[in-house]
Known about the structure:
Pfam families: PHD, Ubiquitin_At1g33420, WHD_plant_repro. The protein is of the alpha+beta class. The protein contains 21 helices and 26 strands. Helix content is about 30%, strand content about 20%. The strands form 6 sheets. Strands 1, 2, 3, 4, 5, 6, 7, 8, 11 and 17 form a 10-stranded mixed beta sheet that branches. The protein has a 5-stranded mixed beta sheet with strand order 12-14-15-16-13. The protein has a 4-stranded mixed beta sheet with strand order 19-18-21-20, covered by helices on one side. β9 and β10 form a beta hairpin. The protein starts with a helix and ends with a strand.
Amino acid sequence: MPVPIFETCRKRKRKPRVYNLQRFGEDGFPIHRNGTFRDQIRVFLRDCAEVEDYDLRGMPVWCTLFSHETKSSLVPLYIVEENVIQSSEPYCDHCRCTGWSNHFVSKRKYHFIIPNDSEWSLPLEEDAFDFQSHVLHGLIHCNGFGHLICVNGMEGGSKYLCGREIVEFWDRICNSLGARMITVEDLAKKRSLELRLLYGVAYGHSWFGRWGYKFCRGSYGVSKSDYENAIELLGSLELDRVECDISELRQSKVIKQVIRYYREMSEGHLKTVRDLLRFMLIIKSHASPQKLLPATPPLLTDSPHQKRSNRLLLKKSDVADNDKSPKYRSYSTVAANLGSRWPVRRLIFAAEVIVESLKEMKALKPNGMTRQDVRDSARLHIGDTGLLDYVLKSMHNVVVGDVLVRRYVDPITRILHYTIQELDDAMKAIEPKKEEAAVLEEITPLRIFTPLKAGADVYGDLLLLYTNVLLNYPESELVRSATQAILDSKHFVKEWPLWDDNNDKVLQFVCRINPSLIDMRSEQITELPPGELVTVPLQATVYDLKQTIEETFRDTYCILSNFVVNEIEEVKEDMSLTESCSALTVRGHGIDLESKLKCQGGCDTWMVKCICRARDDDGERMISCDVCEVWQHTRCCGIDDSDTLPPLFVCSNCCEEFAEQQRKVLQPKYEFPSSENMFLIESADDFFGDQRCLGMIFPEENYLL
């Protein structure tokens, strides 16, 4: 089935234009960056795109086709114009999370979408904006500020485009269309490696940094200086010191072998962790694809929460054929490579709970427990059923502690069962009877696991250093805090030059509303957004400039649809005294201050004040105090991401204030031991009035019910 645009063009009796994917946007082809985004996008849609014969919830859809130089495929790029006033979601969550809550709500958003390969022959679905499976999804507001929402290359399932090609293509589009600033939430991973941490330490910037994306905003109160200091701290760790500090780790011998191998390969030029990681990434980029795949399970990190055995279990066929890789892996290794929204330690803990449930019932049910029985038993200890289902799905032929966990389908009932076998028993196991072979695969004595030599698998060596040096550096809270600061820095931004230095045929100005015209306190913003780029001819008069400013503001922002310019503070009566490329402040009337579509932060008047210094929404999970209604991060309050939110939450500040009030009012009825930071309640009526007493209050802790 062809791409839908072919059918549309056939009906219109014309051939669709096809552009070269690798050359599009280079050297002014097919359009040159000349003017603002709101003007450039109209030129692009008119000259380089074909309108589709269907719409997306009333929004027009255009399509542009691109050919790949080395692959015989046509790649469709869909552009959807979203009218914000008619949209069900007028505010932009991406703006709010990147610190642009103070930006005025623009009238139009433009979505740039390359769907998943399997959907190239299908029209866009109605909920296409919500998919995270697109090869590319970018959004640009008509004021030129936008967001790169998702990129899915080869790792994400694309057969034709890699991540680097997609981002380069997006970068050229933004440059050609006159984008001003584009943000990205960097969640890029290479298997289990967080690239913003790996590339940050190796190169001093994230993976997107090669295209000019720089630090924009950190979560959990991480500032730009925190981020830069963290990168410098980790990158400047001397390898000699690292070898000394990891001496107590179980994997220290292997880690030292890896470090020394690459130092010898570089002829002694590697001195720091930054030098080492950068050198390894260069080698990895030149290695053949076959050598990049790990032939054995990745080496593990030391952790006090799990037991390990160096013995791996293989089937007879695996022992006979040395070319086959082992079928059985430690669950900690499996969990580390799942890319789950739950932390790895939570997955491992859930697996250990499941194993304990299987052990308890092994005597009563020697043939194993059904999946539902295992789930019900584990729920007594873990309330998150989603976590249990996720872990159970990944538990097959895995080693947890000192047991092997396997699953099988009963040939009669067709019900899934889980079984466990002690590793020591497995080593002594004899060949099962033939009738038992349908239920359990036979287990035989196994060979001892021998890790690959250093340098044989660059990715495996990177994973070893990433896990043991970057994530779990021994006995150094400073290093671990630096690692966490980098992982908490997800939002990056690229800014294009505002001025066209080669354009000496027009006058360019950045115009913004006088702050006194907007009640910033009621809008909970500290400053107005950057001004709008306005271009007028060299012979323009003051009147022409005012008219152009009015047209620009009216066409761009919802609250300025009827704006009238009364005065330009820097320009009086003569334009000759005003230099091009200067900033202008505008006064006027007609601002719709009653409109709900003022700022991207929305109309809600809520406050963020977390102990991590965060004062605005950063996209992380939060909870509101039921007394003061101030929002804080759940992580900062000691609530794990996998835990459900409590029905009643009182922050530590309110607990302390309430405790102080009770000390003053109810002093005769209470005893406050100096050695303990708590107070005892004589009666529920004294504490809650008509309410029932629900427990002790610890003023220095959050009150969770």
